[in-house]
């Protein structure tokens, strides 16, 4: 039996790996000042919180409109839905996959919308605009009750219910598998011509324009892909916890923390991102798990310890190792052996 603390580390690592990889694609490779990562994460979370449960409710003949989001009806409806999913693995898998697809599509739409200001604004202006857009969407979910229950959380269908006592283990390893697939996808994308063009745009935008590259399209495509992946992370988080509430998606946890993870590991390096997320995820989970022990040792509440550590890490990284633990490596258009052969032939 796997210890619960290990499962929580795996889940937090996997979800933040997906979100941080999406951020690295936009910031590390494309050079976009993305300070609104929470926007796409919220889009994926709200998609899972608002859509699949309503579809199942409509099929079963329950209210699927505004009343669906009230606590009384939501609890009753989702109890019936989860009983069905508990005995139907195929339906559970179909609901899980289709919900993730819907979340990624909505995330891509959000990415396209955010690409409009990205065309005209740069640096701090774009970062502040994206940051504000993320807060606006969070406040909509918080104050507009019919969407996801407003100030009260809303239950979501549990596609892992059919695994019984292995529910959390199955969910953790499923999310881990998806995160590793995302890592492979982003790494291959970074090594592709598209990834090299993004780096060229980041390093010398004017030179990229001179060589005929469409900067508007490049930024749009980067934001669409990155936002769809971030929405996937938000959707997986909601499925794992089994509920959705707007206040859980703040700019601190879903924008600034991924920035810290990326900076620690190495901006522009997916392997570095993996290391940074793994280190922070392990430390955060240990802090939460051993609050009682830590409270007797440190003079402050352990609740604030993780914030201090993240803030201190950002400051130290910026001062002493801005390239991160694993710096970005140059992208080669040809295999290294072939480049060495060409160099020898010319010498």
> Could you say how many structural domains there are in total?
1
State the distance separating the first and last CA atoms: 61 Å
Count of individual beta strands? 2
Spatial strand sequence of the major β-sheet? 1-2
- What does the average pLDDT come to? 88
- Tally of separate helices: 16
- Radius of gyration over all CA atoms, rounded: 22 Å
Q: Spell the H/E element sequence.
A: HHHHHHHEHHHHEHHHHH
The coarse overall form would be globular
Main beta-sheet annotation = 2 strands, antiparallel
SS class? mainly alpha
Give unreliable regions as ranges: none
Portion in strands: under 5%
Classify the helix fraction into a percent range: over 70%
Task: Kindly describe this structure.
This protein has helices at 4-29, 37-50, 52-60, 71-86, 89-120, 123-143, 145-148, 167-191, 193-203, 205-210, 215-241, 251-265, 270-289, 291-295, 305-320, 336-346; strands spanning 154-155, 243-244. By secondary structure, it is an all-alpha fold. The chain has one domain (4-249). The chain is globular and about 75 Å long.
Features:
1% strand; two-stranded antiparallel sheet; mainly alpha; 347 residues; 2 strands
Describe the structure in brief.
This protein is mainly α and 347 residues long.
Q: Helices and strands in order, then pairings?
A:
Layout: H1 4-29, H2 37-50, H3 52-60, H4 71-86, H5 89-120, H6 123-143, H7 145-148, E1 154-155, H8 167-191, H9 193-203, H10 205-210, H11 215-241, E2 243-244, H12 251-265, H13 270-289, H14 291-295, H15 305-320, H16 336-346
Antiparallel strand pairs: 1-2
């Amino acid at each position: 039996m796997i210890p619960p603390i290990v499962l929580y580390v795996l889940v937090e690592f996997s979800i933040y790996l997906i979100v941080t990889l999406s951020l690295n694609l936009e910031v590390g490779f494309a050079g976009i000042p993305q300070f609104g990562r929470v926007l796409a994460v919220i889009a994926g979370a709200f998609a899972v919180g608002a859509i699949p449960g309503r579809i199942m409710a409509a099929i079963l003949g329950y209210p699927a409109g505004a009343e669906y989001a009230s606590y009384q009806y939501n609890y009753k409806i989702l109890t019936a839905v989860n009983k069905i999913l508990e005995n139907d693995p195929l339906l559970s898998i179909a609901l899980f996959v289709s919900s993730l697809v819907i979340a990624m599509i909505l995330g891509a739409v959000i990415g396209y919308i955010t690409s409009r200001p990205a065309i005209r604004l740069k640096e701090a202006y774009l970062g502040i605009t994206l940051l504000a857009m993320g807060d606006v969407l969070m406040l909509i979910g918080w104050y507009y009750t019919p969407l996801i229950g407003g100030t009260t959380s809303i239950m979501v269908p549990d596609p892992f219910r059919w695994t019984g006592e292995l529910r959390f283990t199955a969910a953790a390893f499923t999310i881990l598998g998806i995160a590793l697939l995302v890592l492979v996808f982003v790494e291959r994308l970074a090594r592709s011509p598209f990834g090299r063009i993004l780096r060229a745009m980041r390093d010398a935008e004017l030179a990229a324009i001179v060589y005929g590259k469409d900067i508007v399209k490049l930024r749009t495509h980067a934001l669409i892909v990155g936002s769809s992946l971030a929405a996937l992370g938000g959707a997986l988080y909601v499925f794992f916890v089994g509920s959705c509430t707007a206040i859980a998606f703040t700019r601190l946890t879903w924008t600034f923390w991924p920035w810290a993870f990326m900076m620690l590991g190495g901006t522009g390096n997916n392997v570095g991102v993996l290391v940074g997320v793994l280190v922070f995820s392990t430390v955060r989970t240990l802090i939460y798990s051993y609050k009682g022990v830590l409270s007797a040792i440190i003079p402050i509440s352990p609740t604030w310890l993780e914030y201090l550590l993240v803030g201190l890490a950002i400051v130290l990284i910026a001062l002493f190792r801005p390239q991160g633990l694993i710096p970005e490596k140059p992208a080669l258009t040809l295999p290294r052996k072939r480049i060495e052969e060409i160099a020898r032939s010319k010498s």
